[in-house]
Design a protein that fits this description.
alpha+beta; elongated; Alpha-Beta Plaits; five-stranded antiparallel β-sheet
Length: 174
Amino acid sequence: MAISKDKKKSLVADLTELLGNSKTTVYARYQGLSVADLQALRAAAREAGVKIKVVKNRLVKVAMNEIAVYKDTDTTGLTGQLLYAVSSEDEVAPAKVLAEFSKTHQALEIAGGFNDLGANLADTEVKALAALPTKNELIAQVVAQLLSPVTDSVSGLSGGLSEIVSGLEAKATA
């Protein structure tokens, strides 16, 4: 069923806003996924703060032309049945969501992406992004590194104090 011109304008306006606010957009081929699979993907994406859009590539190209950052972006890779994962909060989340889902659903194939500066990301770059730790994991690693000298000092002192006390008790009984 054909989409009316007004509906297309509305879709392009929504896409323009979504892409304009996104930190990273990742697109993937989804041919062979069932409706239930797509619903499961959308649910997983929603939990991660990622929006999944299935729209015509031509409408995405029109929306990208309306955004200054994406005007010169190469869109030749936007062919075939694609879905778009977009996040305005986290640069890595769209790549992580699609990569995690593709582990259990072989029909989903990451094809590429765009960053917030308008640069194309190859599928290998998107997969490398997906392999990065999440923001919370990175924060936890930094905190652990900052606390490690304190932890080491406390454990060293507690071990040393117990040996001193043991030595003093041995002297007192002798």
